[in-house]
Design a protein that fits this description.
alpha+beta, Aminopeptidase, seven-stranded mixed sheet, 5 helices, 31% helix, 32% strand
């Protein structure tokens, strides 16, 4: 696997990111296309989006911002193209995003959500130190406390 980097989403890479997709099975869990995330990031949630790149290939999309309290950070969306899953790209992108949020937004806590049916996301987030803070019939909320020594 190539080293993963995050590039700010811009005029040079956004169309390449729109072409990426998850498997048909995954679309049943979370059917939102990347083009939707691009639109909502600009007009509603004010999420900063990044292209995930492995070597010369664009492999995914990840975003971050401040949560509603304007103190805690959040990561949303996290998407790795079906052809690049299982290669560690998602883990590397998440680690880079955690560093970005800590350094640039100076957050001490990061929230993330996932569908209950998305067991791959649950395993990844748990392995990175995100602890469950709430759950309902469809989704799970998790938080990473960057002041907790277990999250280092």
């Amino acid at each position: 696997m190539s080293n993963v980097i995050l590039e700010p989403l811009d005029v040079n890479n956004w169309l390449k990111i729109c072409d990426l997709t998850v498997s048909k099975r995954q679309k049943k869990i979370f059917p939102i296309a990347n083009v939707y995330w691009i639109g909502i990031s600009r007009y509603e949630e004010k999420t900063e989006l990044f292209a995930v790149k492995a070597g010369e290939d664009y492999v995914g999309l990840i975003g971050c911002g401040y949560d509603e309290d304007c103190v805690t950070g959040h990561i949303n969306p996290v998407m790795i193209d079906k052809r690049h899953q299982g290669k560690g790209c998602g883990r590397q992108a998440m680690l880079l995003m955690i560093v970005y949020l800590r350094k640039h937004l100076r957050v001490t806590k990061i929230n993330i959500c996932h569908r209950n049916a998305n067991t791959a996301a649950a395993r990844l987030y748990e392995s990175l130190g995100f602890r469950v803070t709430g759950e309902d019939k469809t989704g799970c909320r998790r938080q990473l406390d960057l002041t907790d020594k277990r999250s280092d």
